[in-house]
Amino acid sequence: MPGPDLASLCDDLAAEHSDLDAVVSPLDTATWDEPTPAAGWAVRDQIHHLAWFDRNAVLAVEDSDAFTAKMNEMVGEFAAFEATLANEARSMAPDELLQWWRDGRVELLRVVRNADPTLRVPWYGPPMAVASFTTARLMETWAHGQDVVDAVGATRTPTNRLRHIAHIGVRTRGFAYTIRNRPLPDADVRVELAAPDGSAWTWGSDDATDRVHGPAFDFCLVVTQRRHIDDTSLVADGPLAVEWMSIAQAFAGGPGEGRTPGQFAHT
Q1: CA of 105: how far to CAs of 42, 52, 115, in Å?
Q2: Are 38 and 147 in contact (CB under 8 A)?
Q3: Is the distance from CB of 264 to CB of 221 less than 8 angstroms?
Q4: What's the DSSP call for residue 42?
């Protein structure tokens, strides 16, 4: 089955931006400093992170050499980089930060919509096709948005845009093992998810002994490390499925700490 075209992906990314914007735009000044489930990150840090990396994504598409130089500088002085971002996030008034994020994401969508579809975009891992790169930005927006939603007690209605995130979650099974220096098991794991519209999304062999099944929303929460599987309705059947769900990571970088069992009420 062919994936969505780039224009459709951009539309979905824009919709994801709008959904999160609707959560943060009414917040009062104090709530922007409300801590989120990510240790040390307030609401403002989550939005600043998205805005900063949206701008860096524009650079990756338009000037790969400049992006690579900036990435190497960041990796070489990572503690200083994190401190700089934290200071920037705290120095901006909420309305300024909100507008900064809005301006950056508009520019990102403009650049991606006009990019050569065959372009390989450098990022914090192997270069990606433009469509995959756009999907990754959607996943990041949704995942950091979940931290904001959890912090302020808001709700977001799950949409079929979750399919993009679930697909990344499945595709990164090998990555989750690699960053932990573990060999990827030879056997497949079947994934069967109930979509928000009532349809079924599946990946993997019908003959796979191990299986992950449940709501697509819960699967996306687990693979983006926004929930421990024990706090969801997701079910992992078989040792390979259980192991994968314990280390699943759809985002780039080193192994994430994830969330602890019981951190969120299981509804």
Answers
A1: 20, 10, 15
A2: yes
A3: no
A4: B
What is the residue whose two structure tokens read 């008034």?
A: 93
Q: In this predicted model, what pLDDT tens digit does every residue of 85-133 receive, in sequence order?
A: 889 999 999 999 999 999 999 999 999 999 998 999 999 888 999 999 9
Instruction: Output the pLDDT for position 1.
Output: 45
Q: Judge whether 56 and 67 are in contact, CB under 8 Å.
A: yes
Partnered with residue 214 across adjacent β-strands are 193
How far is 22 from 24, CA to CA, in rounded Å? 6
Mention every residue, 6+ apart, whose C-beta is less than 8 A from residue 192. 200, 201, 202, 211, 212, 213
Q: Are 20 and 10 in contact (CB under 8 A)?
A: no
User: If you search the block for the tokens 């979650």, which residue do you land on?
Assistant: 169
* Helical spans, DSSP H, in the chain: 6-24, 43-62, 64-76, 78-91, 94-113, 130-152, 162-171, 173-178, 216-223, 239-247
Question: Average of pLDDT values for 43-63?
Answer: 96
Neighbours of 134 (CB within 10 A): 27
Q: Give the residue with greater pLDDT, 84 vs 109.
A: 109
Report residue 215 as tokens: 């709501």
Cβ neighbours of 62 (radius 10 Å): 13
